[in-house]
Fold each of these.
Amino acid sequence: MRPHYHPPVEEISVQGILYALADPVRARIFAALVNADCAQNCSSFLNVGKIKMPKSTLSQHFKVLREAGLVRSVKCGVELHNVSRCRELKKKFGSMIEAILKAYKTNNLRP
């Protein structure tokens, strides 16, 4: 298996972040990772809200989040453990990401 690509902070763009968080399911997954105490694997999100997700769909969502630079995935055995990169991104993007997640919550779209 080839290693997953994690763009350096300098390569992460506003457009990539907005694209990744435009999907409410991805925004909900990302918000859960931001608020998690530890890394989460894909199976932790089989039920996103009231929506049941197949693992293949979740893998695609994590790929988009990873390639946008929002999450870091670390192989642990046969699983990938995912963590938010918010701390790294805050230096470049300030509170933009927090504002996007807050907007979802304010509009009752509950990411």
Amino acid sequence: MSETFTLVVVSAGTSDPSSTRLLADRAAQRVAALAQQRGNAVRTRVIDLRELATDITTALTSQLVTPKLQQAVAALGEADGIIAAAPVYKAGASGLFTSFFQVLDNDLLIGKPVLLAATAGTARHALVVDEQMRSLFAYLRALPVPTALFAGPEDWADDALNQRVGRATFELVLLMESGFARRLRDESWQSYQHELGSAGGTEFDIDTSSDLMRLATGGSAV
């Protein structure tokens, strides 16, 4: 039985054209092709973070989520798979990229498969994906695929990049097909620790009548 999966591409590239966006698009096209070969379809949505820069800053400084940012958050919530691509500046993923994921609800990406990708002007930054980006998504309790993508200037004409794209996207397709994130939410969501107000109000097992919660809301513990 064929299925239609929703793939969300998050690109933090700031130039036009952007090498970060080019790498993300190459991976997204391969995901769609692989899914089609396996009898499924992919609906792709793109979140271009440069268009949300002001909205992300507003959320960081005032906790106000604008309608544009809320649309991006909703898209991620509906995603069966995610491609997250960032440019690397000064040995780290761009601040725009990390800020976006820092303002998300901590429960939003639990169990969701994510393909991590980065671009840089030198191969010296190749480990940023595994050393920094992977730990960020581990904190968010997402499920990064084993193969990470990185492209420096010398990689674009190298067939090895195409091979890595093929391997990483196949891993992502398999995880999307497994329905892991959906089954986890349906069958084991209550076993995770959720913060008050997280998960769109669907958190479980928070005892608001405890002494600690009464103190947190300005009441008395006695």
Amino acid sequence: MSTTIDTEQFKQRLLDERARVQEALDYLHEENAGSIEDEREEIPSDNHPADVATSTVDREIDYTLEENEERLLTAIDTALKRIEDGTFGTCRTCGQPIAIERLEALPYTTQCIDCKRREERG
């Protein structure tokens, strides 16, 4: 059974998601504009080590969020390119169509569920 993919619908979803991700990245960049040295200068020397640790953990969380959003942005851009070149919805590993349900859940996916599971098992 052949299912035609409504690439325009997916393109719009991807563009909407891309705008959301870019907004989140812009916010994170704004929040983390200062360097570690700037933050150290703001922390008085009589601060408890736990206060310094909390600041460090918060900064690490922000950096992790930023990395995740950047990876997602790349995945979205790659999916948009696949729509343009006509390969959207085709598994990059086996070449078979990706189930529409999987694309609806993860429109930027590059693999069918079977190939993804095999990859994750190593």
